[in-house]
C-alpha cells in the first residue's frame, strides 16, 4: 500500500513540499493529502500590500496554483479544512470541515509536514478584535481588509506598528486616498534597520504625507455604538480617529498545534528542525516556512524570520527528503529587501544591536553613493552602512537605503556573508561596471574600502 | 630631497595612483609628475558612447577631475605631453611637448607608473586611416567623432565589429538618426557571450533597426575624391556606403614604450605585473589599467581586459604601494555588464570556449525568469545561462540577458566565483526577496537549482 503524506497548511511551504514529493514519487508510492483552513492556497502573501494599494489586481494574480491544479497533479488538497489536533503517538491528525457543518475526522499519516505559517501579533488590548481592525497575513485577511475599505465611507486610517508590513500598508492606504497615521512604539520605523538608517525611512514617510507618532504605546481600540473600531488610544490620553485600523506589529509562528503535541519550540516560539527540516527528535515529521525558526549563520542562533523565499526553499527541501531524496537548508544570513515610500530598503547580516547581543565587537561605516555613474541619467542616491568584525575584518552586515537600483545590491553582501569574506577581500570584488549600472566604484566597494580602513584603524 | 614619482598616462589608473600617493605622502616627501598626451585627463571613457548618443551632455560631464584640480593637490599634471622613450637604466623618461613645438625633455624618476591604456584595433587595411574612420577609446576620439558627425550631412553609418563598443556605438548612431550597418566577422554579436546568448543581442539589434551583416570580412575603406571614407568593402565584393565609419574591433594594450624598454609582456600584449601591480622583475616600476594583463581567477591565466573599474582599482593599489603602504589586486573573475538596444547584458566567469581552452569539463543550463514577481508591474523577462564544473559542481560562469533589473544580478555570481561556491551551495543563498525585486525564487537561484541537478545527473 502507498505511504500517506499529510501536509498541514496549503501555502508556500506546504504545497511546495507536496509538489516536490509528487515530482519524485508516483501516486501508487505516496498518497498526498494537504489541509488548508483558508479559502486560498499557494499564494504570495508578500503581494497583499500591493493588492490593497491597487498596484496588483489580485487576489487571482497572487495565486501561483489553484486547488484544482494541485488536484490534477494527484495532490489531495482539502480547502477550508482545519487541523485541530495532532496525535503523534498514533500518527494521525484530526480535522474539522469549516464549511460543511464542522464535521470532525481523523486522518492517519506515515509522514507529516507542518506548514502552519504565522499569525499577526495582536496584543490583548480592549477592542483589538473589533470589526474594522485588520491583520494582513493571509489572502483571507487581505480580502477582509478590502471588504472593509469598500464598505466604509472613511478617510482616516491608523496603522499600528512601523515594521515593513506596517509601512507598506501605510503607503498602500495613502495610495487609496486615506489620511494615514502610523503609531510606532519605537523611535524610528523599520526595526529591521539600525536607527540611523531607519531615520531615512521616516523622512520618506513624511514626504508621502504619512503622519508618524513615535514612541506611541497603544492602549486599546475604541469602538462606536455598532461595536466597530473608530479610534486607537495611546498612553498619555492620545486618541487617533480611525475608519480602519491595520495591525503591522509583526507576526509570530503559528505553532498552537505543535505546542499541544509537545514538539520542540525555540525562544521565538518557532518549531525547531534539523538541517533537513525534520522536526528535532522526530523521525517522520518535517516543518518549514513561517512556523519554524531558522539558523542565522551570522548570529549563530536560530531566529524567527517570516519570509516567502525561505518558505519556498523549505518546501522544496522537505518534499525532497520526504520522498527519500536529499536536501538541506544550511541557514540564512538575514537578508531582507522592501520597497516603501519610493525607497528601496535592504539589509543583510546583523544590526548593531544584534551584534552586541552575541558578543561581537565591530566597526561600522556609512557612505553615500549613486545607483549609476553620476553623469548618467537617473543616477539615484543611496546610502550604504557596512559592519565588520573588529580584528578579523569579517563582514557582519550591510544596510542599504536608496532609490531605484539600491535594494538588490544587498545580494553581493549576502553572498559575501555566506562565504565569510572580510571587508578587505570585498574591496577587490569584480562587480559589474558600466555607467548605466554603477559608478566606477560600486557603492558596495566604496563601503568595503572604508570599512577595511576602519578595521585597520581599530587594530592600530 | 623628495623622491619623484613619474606617471605616464593621465586617465583612470594614472591619476588614481597619483591621487592615492598624494593622500599618503606630502609634497616634501614625494614629488608627483604625470604626463598625458591628450587634451583630457581623469575621464570616463566608458561614457563616450552615451555622449555620442546624446544621453550624456559631455565631455565635461565625463571628467571626474580637471587638470587644475589635480594641480591644486600638488600633482604636476602636464597635458599634451607625450612620453616618447623610457630609459629604465638611468631612471628617466623622455617627453615631447605636443603643443609647444615638440620640445623634447628628459625627466628623471625614483618611481614610475605606466598607465598608457589601450588603443582601438585598427587592422592594416586600405583606407583605414582615412578621415571619417573613427576609433572610440579616448575623449579626444569621442570629440573627433562628434566633430565628424556635425560636419557631415550624412545618413549612413557603418560600424565594423560587434563587440560591446560596436553595439553601443551602433545604438548611439541609431539614436542620432543614422541608418546603421554593423559588419560582424562572427556569427553573433558580443563575443563576450556564448553564441546562444549573443543571438538574443542580435534579435534586439534587429528590433532597433540596426542592420547586421554576419560573417563579414572587411577588406578596406573606400575613399571619395577628397580622400574621405565613403564606403566599407568586404570579401565577395560587398560594399557598404558610409558617411561615417566607426571601428568597434576591440582594443589592445598600448605598450609600445614598455616593449621598447624591454618590459615583460603577456600573450595578449599587456604588461605583466605581480600582485602589488609592480611590473615583473622591476623594483621601481608599476603598471595598471588597460595596458596590463590581469589574472583571471577562474581561467587560471592572465588576460587583457580593458575596463574602467579595474583601472581605478589598479590606480588605488599602485598609489598605496608607491607610497609605502600595502595593497594587492588578487585578480578578476571576468565580470562585464552593458546596456545596449534596451537589453541588459552581463557575464562573469567563463564562456564555454574559454572553459574548453583550459581543459575544464562542465555542464550548462539555461533558464527564463523575470526581474520581479510575475504579478508585479513591469516584471521583465530575463534569460540566465549558468555553467558548473563537472564532478565538483563549482560555479564556472553566468551569462544574463534581459531587460531592466537583469544586469546587476550577475554580481551574485561574481562573488560566488570569488568564493569558489558550488552551484549546489548557491541554491541556498539568502538573496533579497520582495515582489518588486524578484520572483520568490530569484532567477540566479532557479539557474543554480537546475545547474545542481545537471551536475548530479552528469555524475550519475
Task: Compose a concise summary of this entry.
2 copies of one chain form a homodimer. The first copy, chain A, contains 12 helices and 25 strands.
Explain what the structure shows:
Chains A, B: Residues 338-440 form the Pyridine nucleotide-disulphide oxidoreductase dimerisation domain. Chains A, B: GO terms for molecular function: oxidoreductase activity. The first copy, chain A, has 460 residues and is an alpha/beta fold. Chain A has 3 domains: 3-119 and 252-322, FAD/NAD(P)-binding domain, CATH 3.50.50; 122-249, FAD/NAD(P)-binding domain, CATH 3.50.50; 342-459, Enolase-like, domain 1 (2-Layer Sandwich), CATH 3.30.390. Chain A is 26% helix and 28% strand. In chain A, the strands form 7 sheets. In chain A, strands 3-2-1-7-18 form a 5-stranded parallel beta sheet. Chain A has a 5-stranded parallel beta sheet with strand order 9-16-10-11-12, with helices on one face. In chain A, helix 1 packs parallel to helix 8 (308-322). The model of chain A has no long low-confidence stretch (mean pLDDT 95). Chains A and B meet through helix 8, strand 21, strand 22 and helix 10 of A and helix 8, strand 21, strand 22 and helix 10 of B.
Distinctive features:
460 residues, homodimer, FAD/NAD(P)-binding domain, Enolase-like, domain 1, redox-active center (chains A, B), 25 strands, alpha/beta, flavoprotein (chains A, B), oxidoreductase (chains A, B), oxidoreductase activity (chains A, B), five-stranded parallel beta sheet
Amino acid at each position: 500500500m502507498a505511504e500517506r503524506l499529510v501536509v498541514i497548511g496549503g501555502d508556500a511551504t506546504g504545497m511546495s513540499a507536496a509538489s516536490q514529493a509528487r515530482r519524485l514519487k508516483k501516486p501508487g508510492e505516496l498518497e498526498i493529502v494537504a489541509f488548508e483552513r483558508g479559502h486560498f492556497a499557494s499564494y504570495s502573501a508578500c503581494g497583499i500590500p500591493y493588492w490593497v494599494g491597487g498596484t496588483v489586481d489580485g487576489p487571482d494574480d497572487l495565486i501561483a496554483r489553484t486547488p484544482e491544479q494541485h488536484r490534477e497533479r494527484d495532490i489531495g488538497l482539502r480547502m477550508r479544512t482545519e487541523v485541530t489536533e495532532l496525535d503523534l503517538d498514533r500518527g494521525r491528525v484530526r480535522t474539522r470541515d469549516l464549511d460543511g457543518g464542522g464535521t470532525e475526522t481523523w486522518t492517519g499519516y506515515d509522514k507529516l509536514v507542518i506548514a502552519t505559517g504565522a499569525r499577526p501579533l495582536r496584543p490583548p488590548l480592549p477592542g483589538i478584535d473589533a470589526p474594522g481592525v485588520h491583520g494582513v497575513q493571509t489572502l483571507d485577511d487581505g480580502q477582509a481588509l478590502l471588504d472593509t475599505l469598500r464598505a466604509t465611507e472613511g478617510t482616516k486610517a491608523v496603522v499600528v506598528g512601523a515594521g515593513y508590513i506596517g509601512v507598506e500598508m501605510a503607503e498602500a492606504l495613502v495610495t487609496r486616498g486615506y489620511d494615514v497615521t502610523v503609531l510606532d512604539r519605537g523611535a524610528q520605523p523599520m526595526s529591521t534597520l539600525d536607527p540611523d538608517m531607519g531615520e531615512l525611512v521616516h523622512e520618506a514617510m513624511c514626504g508621502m504625507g504619512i503622519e508618524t507618532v513615535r514612541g506611541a504605546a497603544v492602549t486599546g481600540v475604541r469602538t462606536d455604538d455598532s461595536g466597530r473600531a473608530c479610534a486607537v488610544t495611546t498612553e498619555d490620553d492620545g486618541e487617533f480617529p480611525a475608519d480602519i485600523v491595520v495591525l503591522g506589529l509583526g507576526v509570530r509562528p503559528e505553532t498552537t498545534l505543535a505546542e499541544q503535541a509537545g514538539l520542540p519550540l525555540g525562544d521565538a516560539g518557532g518549531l525547531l528542525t534539523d538541517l533537513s527540516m525534520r522536526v528535532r527528535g522526530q523521525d517522520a515529521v518535517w516543518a518549514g516556512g513561517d512556523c519554524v525558526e531558522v539558523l542565522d549563520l551570522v548570529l549563530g542562533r536560530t531566529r524567527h524570520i517570516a519570509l516567502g523565499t525561505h518558505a519556498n526553499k523549505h518546501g522544496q527541501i522537505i518534499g525532497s527528503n520526504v520522498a527519500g531524496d536529499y536536501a538541506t537548508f544550511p541557514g540564512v544570513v538575514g537578508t531582507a529587501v522592501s520597497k516603501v515610500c519610493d525607497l528601496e530598503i535592504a539589509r543583510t547580516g546583523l544590526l548593531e544591536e544584534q551584534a552586541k547581543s552575541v558578543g561581537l565587537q565591530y566597526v561600522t561605516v556609512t557612505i553615500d553613493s549613486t545607483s549609476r555613474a553620476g553623469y548618467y541619467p537617473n543616477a539615484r542616491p543611496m546610502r550604504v552602512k557596512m559592519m565588520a568584525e573588529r580584528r578579523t575584518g569579517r563582514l557582519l552586515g550591510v544596510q542599504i537605503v536608496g532609490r531605484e537600483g539600491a535594494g538588490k545590491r544587498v545580494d553581493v553582501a549576502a553572498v559575501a556573508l555566506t562565504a565569510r569574506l572580510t571587508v578587505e577581500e570585498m574591496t577587490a570584488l569584480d562587480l559589474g561596471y558600466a555607467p548605466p549600472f554603477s559608478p566606477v566604484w560600486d557603492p558596495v566597494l566604496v563601503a568595503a574600502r572604508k570599512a577595511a580602513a576602519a578595521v585597520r584603524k581599530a587594530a592600530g
